[in-house]
Amino acid sequence: MSHVTRTESPVAIKDKAALVSAAQKLGAEVLFDEEARGWSSLRHRGEIVLRHPESRYDVALNRVEGVYELNADLFGGGVEKVYGTKEHPYGKLVALYGAEVARKVALLRGYRVEQTMDQRGIVTQRVVVG
Amino acid sequence: MTREIVIKYHPDGNVEIEGHGFIGKECLSASKPFEVALGLDNITREMKPDER
């Protein structure tokens, strides 16, 4: 029996730098081409692996047709506590990823960006155009 | 008046984009680069009276 769950992210994760930045904002250590830790001796390789001191298990990300898929052992709730919510285990990560992508767009245009995240994991970004 | 775009990213993957202070459909062109960069589809748009 496997404890690994595959989730297709609703916002397509394609930008590696934005993903790394989002994960680091959540306090994760970002590893490359590494084994992700799962239950017992279960391991799964990731082009990118997210490791966090508050989660026993890691998140592995691998690209499929240019889009990163997220895989982790969700047992115990450690992953959802760090990266998302009960309903959406990677929700905070995906929300922050989107915000990082949009931040790049805004800064390239010389816009000012303010950003907050609430307890529910909703990221609000205010882009001041002028 | 300050023109700004407020983007809300929900944990379920939904994204809301709102334009404030724009004239006419200027807000649509301002938000377009963000929609493209985020790869958003299935977009529902609602124009507010003060921005028509």
Pair with the most extensive interface? A-B, 33 and 21 residues
Query: Whole-number radius of gyration of chain A?
Result: 15 Å
Beta-strand share of residues of chain A: 35-45%
| Tally of separate helices of chain B | 1
Distance between the termini of chain A: 55 Å
List the helices and strands of chain A in order. Answer: EHEEEEHHEE
Spatial ordering of strands, largest sheet of chain A: 1-5-4-3-2
Task: Give the quaternary arrangement of the chains.
Answer: heterodimer
Q: Biggest sheet of chain A, open or closed, and with what strands and sense?
A: 5 strands, antiparallel
Structural class of chain B: alpha+beta
Main sheet characteristics of chain B: 2 strands, antiparallel
The overall number of domains of chain B is 1
Mean of residue pLDDT of chain A? 90
Could you name the ranges of chain B where pLDDT drops below 50 across 5 or more consecutive residues?
none
Total strands of chain B: 2
Ranges of chain A where pLDDT stays below 50 over 5 or more residues in a row are 1-9
Q: SSE order of chain B, as H and E?
A: EEH
